[in-house]
Amino acid sequence: MDAVQRQQPDKRKRGRIRLSKIYSYACVRPTVVEGDSLVPLGGPGFSRVVFCNQPERHRTKPFKYRSNYVSTTKYNIATFLPKALFEQFRRVANMYFLFTAALSLTPLAPLSASSVILPLIFVVGVSMIKEAIEDWRRFLQDREVNTRKVRVHTGNGKFADVEWRKVRVGDVVQVQKDQFFPADLLMLSSSYPDGVCYVETMNLDGETNLKLKKTLEATLDLDGDDEFGGFVGIIRCEDPNPNLYSFIGNLEYEGSVLSIGPQQILLRDSKLRNTQYVYGVVVFSGHETKVMQNATDPPSKRSGIERKMDSIIYFLFSVLVTLSLIGAIVFGIRTKLYMPSWWYLRPDDTTSDFNPNSALLSSFYQFITALILYGYLIPISLYISLEVVKLMQARLINQDIHMYHEETDKPAHARTSNLNEELGQVDTILSDKTGTLTCNQMEFLKCSIAGVSYGVGVTEVERATAKRLKRNTEEVNDLPRNDTWKAQANDEGIEMVEKPHVKGFNFRDVRIMNGNWALEAKAEVIQMFFRILAVCQTAIPEEGENGRISYEAESPDEGAFVVAARELGFEFAKRTQTSVHVRESDLSGRKLEREYKVLNLLEFNSTRKRMSVVVRDEDGQIYLFCKGADSVIFERLSKAGREYEEATKLHLANYGDAGLRTLALAYRKLDEAAYKEWSDVFLKAKTTIGLDRDSKLDKASDMVERELILVGATAVEDKLQKGVPECIDKLALAGLKIWVLTGDKVETAINIGFACSLLRSDMKQIVVSLDTPSVKSAEESNDKNAIMKVSKEAVRSQLISGQQHVAVDSGTDTVFALIIDGKSLVYALEDDMKELLLQLAVKCASVLCCRVSPKQKAMVTRLVKEGTGKTTLAVGDGANDVGMIQEADIGVGISGVEGMQAVMASDFSIAQFCFLERLLIVHGHWCYKRIATMVCYFFYKNIVFGLTLFYYEAYTNYSGQTLYNDWFLSLFNVLFTSLPVAALGVFEQDVPAKVCLEFPSIYQQGPQNMFFKWDRILGWMANGVLGSIMCFFIVIGIFGHQAFRHDGQISEFQVFGATMYTAIIWVVNGQLALATSYFTFIQHLFIWGSVVLWYLFLLFYGLLSPTISTTAYHVLTEALAPSPRFWIATLLVTAACLFPYFAYVVFRRQFSPMDHHILQEMMYLNKDVADLELWSQERSKAVERAAYGFTARVEARIRLIRQRLHSNASPPRNGGQ
What we know:
ATP hydrolysis activity, magnesium ion binding, elongated, ATP-binding, alpha+beta
């Protein structure tokens, strides 16, 4: 029974309000009439044909469309092996070891084939397994989406639950409340009789406010399962494309051709809200849907250090080839000239390896042998060690309690470990706004009415500024404060505003609350202000079980306005098809319910920047109520309506500086004749079907929105996520740049820019838009080519003009902000203009890109990444951010309340934007320093070890004899030096987390790449070369041709090799100890434990049978341990090899210390506790000069006040005296 009721809509709903008329109003609703022109279809880009309710017709070409199955994985069963192998062998080191593994199968190899091939298989295999596990997780996430269920029409009016992946183009589906749409649908009907529904598009554009969609009137009656038994129709529309905000098509149904627009399209991954169900037909499925068209393939990202490692390995490989070539040439010459006299080698009966008659061939064989033997110069275990270390680093990031969000129970999560060190090298952050920086929750905080400012609330911007000023009391003690500051900073500290009791309303002012407004001098103006708030809106009232009315609004701003009106005594109570009912108070305090007949609605758009409603009150008077951007309203005021203009402008400036979103409110009285004349013009424009409809509507609206009377202005606060302003300030002080890329309109983005101090009032804004007279003139011609040409030239001229402005003010304290909208970006991102955009943008302190599509976000990210050549990080929370997250060097997803697409596509996920501060400044700095030092050390120890093999080869006439036992060679990187370097990579801290956050400029060591520049890399290599020389020749000098045993015998190569190996173990582990700043028990255990492990191995391995231990048989117990020369050589070599590095560090710390050196010494001397004044002074120095953020904002404010004081204190000039 329940199922039947669910399928059959309640017929009583027919008598309820037609909600679509609330939105568009029936009196001005366009209808398709005979003769209306439809968009021409069938040409390029408009070839799609969909047979509604006949999915079987799409099984053959040309109507065979893609399935609804989606995949975000990098691999599948067929491509995993080739693609994963490609990923591994594009690493230069792995290619080299593949080459040597092939050579090891030949008789020329000095080592066994297994000792070369098995390590390669292990390293590559472990990396491929890691890749497979990560991609398997993506596959499981895809499977969860693909196996969701939706009701699909199976024929004869019957519906059944079908998995998303089996949904086909042409299928009729029923989506129920709070479900996601499985594909791009043409909406046919809904549970509301008027065919409207509410859609949440957070996963598409990041916005949480609901959008209203409406069906065509012709399909309204398709409101039950049974109705679809005989339903057929044909859709002819545009081909799949990534444009989320447009759709062009026609529906052929019951002999009529109906125009389809974006208002009838329900996009995949948006969610049905506040509507019991909708019916729709699938137009685009799977990867052809708009959200998937905006997605890009999962990129294969590599860190900058890893890419540079390839260059280092190229360099070492060239060294290896050079050494092998030198050895081969020398060997060939000596074989040719001296081999005949070496009788003990039997030159008359030798192989081609030592044949003086074929010296060239012998030289070639020696070259191949050397290539394999000197391979220890290139560390095969480097990549696998990095993999392990990065996994451990990722685990530490995941377990950081300071990045755990208790409310949502979500910790930080490193979804890939390949990019840990990149977190410490970020130069530019590209951030989404809604849901990333803000909560998208508006609160009515202040207002200006009749030239009087009301509201004593303190914004987050004001609160943080006051705190900052209070910390700098010495500097600002004698400076005058404006009214806003006085409201928040006093002797007791910061005024705390109690939490609002009502969502959307945080207003406090007894002068106009609780009916006190009637006692004010301008009570009639205040009444009109509240009336405009209650009437000039498109919200839907809903009465709850407790009798309290709540509102469903298209935007959070509008919701805040109607809530504020309700709380201040003007309750929007009811809406009918043609009227609005408001329970309001008169001047005597009586409660009345007034009805306002809605005659026309003039909708808001980014060009008009205002919204108006024309109503008739109960007395028959016609009013136009208008709210919009102050710049637009002020220019439309009548002479009599400007009474409060100057005072309102001052208040608006203060509100803007406090980070509030502002709108001006005005009204106009209309007489009947004037309204009738205008109404005819407006109705004609409203019913126009064609490309010029919007321009005609704007012109008609502009005719009536004149001669307005200013009432006041509103100020609402878009609540930032907790800690966002402080986080942005810290990132600014660390020297990072932040760009905001948002789908919101320009005004919204600017207000948020002020709220989080990316913008401030003294910044010069460079606005690039197509809202220019030349573009508007071209649009009137309806000539697309002319519009494109004029638009492109307008953008170019604005970019050039912006550069000129920046150049004129260069060298001053003037800072600039670039604000550009999506339409302008279309042209600015073209190949011949994007360089202009980048040149201007990098010179600006803040960049805001508004009304951008997901594709444009990715394109801007690519422009910054490739144009600057520096590391970029993109952060977002919705599916609309996936493109830029994947395009950036590092992608960070915010695991918000709704949608996980951004997280699924990201490299790192966090629950709140504020955690980005710790992720970058702490973990990023640590990981960069750890990995850079680890890689440099890896090359150092392998050079020390590998070059001794070359020296010994030269010492033995390139005989091919190895200096060390085979097991010594195999275990050097695997056992005796692997754990200490892993401990360095996981646990090293040059300074603690607290100090990183207190001294954020230390982060710049990463973007400036101070620990992985070529001079530093070559310095480590030079240290390795010097160490290898001293190690080899000191041991040679000590053991050489002198008697070693009691019977006068000299040491054999086994003793010589074991002694040198022991010295190298001490040297490389001692070097690591010198390079370590932060010691824990684990570091000590691994460093000194590795040395002890070597002695234990040598002892027990030497006790084995000589067939197993070979050259190590009893070498410690019988030869080395009893000999003082062995212990002296070990000590002397270790001290000699470590002294150069020790001396360098002492010199550097004494005469040219780095930031972390100074901080380490201050902490060692307990200055952070014993001398707080010195500690604070150093903190004030250890910041990058920021052009945005609270610190920059307060400093700019102090400079302005000082300038005013200086100008007031300056004596007046006596012109003629």
